[in-house]
Amino acid sequence: MTLRFGHAEIVLWCAAFLALAVPRTAATETIQGAQPVLAPRMDLPGYLVPTVDTAIGTTFVRVTSPESALGNGLACRRSYCTHRYSSAQAWNADQTLLLIANGCNGLCFLDGQTYAPLFQRRRSGDECEWHPQDSELMICVGGQRISHWAPRSNREEVIFDLEGYRGLRFGPSKGNPSWDGNRIAVRAMTEQGALVTFAVDLSIRQKFPDIDLAGIPGKNSYCSISPLGQYIFCQQDGVTDQAFVFGIDGSLIQSWTEHHRPGHGDMTVDGDGSEVYVGISKSDPDKYHVIKRRLSDGLVTALAPYGKAQHASTRAIRRPGWVILSYGGNPPASAQRLRGAPFAQEVIALKIDGSGKFRRVAHTVSAPYDYRSETHGSPSPDGSQVIWSSNWGQAGGPVFDFVSRLDWDDREVRQGAAQGGRP
């Protein structure tokens, strides 16, 4: 069935949504004293139908429908229809647009609050990420160019045309701009065939020195600028997956030679103003714990005990004291574990101050199957919404996207702003 939304229908639907989907407060707990909370029995929610997770009290909505025409030219493929990745920002700066990039017929844009389908665009060969401050813009990298692109109007302004380089990548796949939107890290090939990365300041149109990626062990997976634009973080694949932190001048700051300590994560700014990477460790002495690691000196702080955390996202840049964690695992096994994290097939919000304080966001009801079926929870800039994926208990079945809504104490919003969440 094809759904088409006119202006009147969207207005009526918004009113109905706001009446039914007022976010409820999920209590803040501490991991040390928390018990597992099993998901309630729920049939697959209908498309755009607000649903309450009665076990934790949050409201969520299914926002995609695989193998369906959504309306306004948007259509999902049969197997999956989801946002791009946990550490990629799905919403624009003012949260009026939500991007569905995987399994849709192009870049599919939904209304950022009601999730009604709006329009789709195609970008051949470019990687685009939302500008964190300008809600009309995305930053796009591809070929030899870096540009600002406005999806609504489909207008583009080329910022850099880099002669002497080819195959420019934004990451690839895991690159983000600095929080002010001015700096990015680019990976590229030189005319001599060397794989390099370098920082670019878009505001003053300045390119920083090349960093030769052949000079560090392993094969490069991606490189990204840090939130404040001070560092370039590079993940290297090999016998062990290692990380290297460079200054934007090309100087090597840190070598994290342990296997994924941490990985599958994201960067943010800590309460003391230092830039950190938050993710899942796969090495001793904190194997399978959630940790944060300071970019300047490598200091590690444990945040959550042993568990089945799969992905970490700090895309709520206006709430920098929290990380969104996506847990896999088996709920009954989690319930029997005495000293581990009390989460399985869940999305939670965890404070990164080491206190262990957290809030439950959603039960994902997702059966383990493949990478596409993993949850990849990612918050909106202010943390009021979290998008996540699930095959809804059907291994090998279609993977849907859902959005959960959260309300927050206004004092926490002001504290986040004071810590640097509004650059």
Would you kindly provide a brief summary of this structure?
8% of the residues lie in helices and 38% in strands. With 423 residues, the protein is mostly beta strands.
Shape: globular
What's the mean pLDDT score? Answer: 91
Terminal residue distance: 44 Å
Largest sheet, if any? 5 strands, antiparallel
Estimated share of beta-strand residues:
35-45%
Helix content: under 10%
Number of strands: 32
Summed up, the helix count is 3
Q: Which strand order do you get reading across the main beta sheet? A: 1-29-28-27-26
Domain count: 2
Contiguous low-pLDDT stretches (5 residues minimum) are 1-24, 416-423
Radius of gyration: 21 Å
Structural class based on helices, strands and sheet pairing: mainly beta
Protein name: Translocation protein TolB
Organism: Bradyrhizobium icense
Signal peptide: 1-26
Keywords: Signal
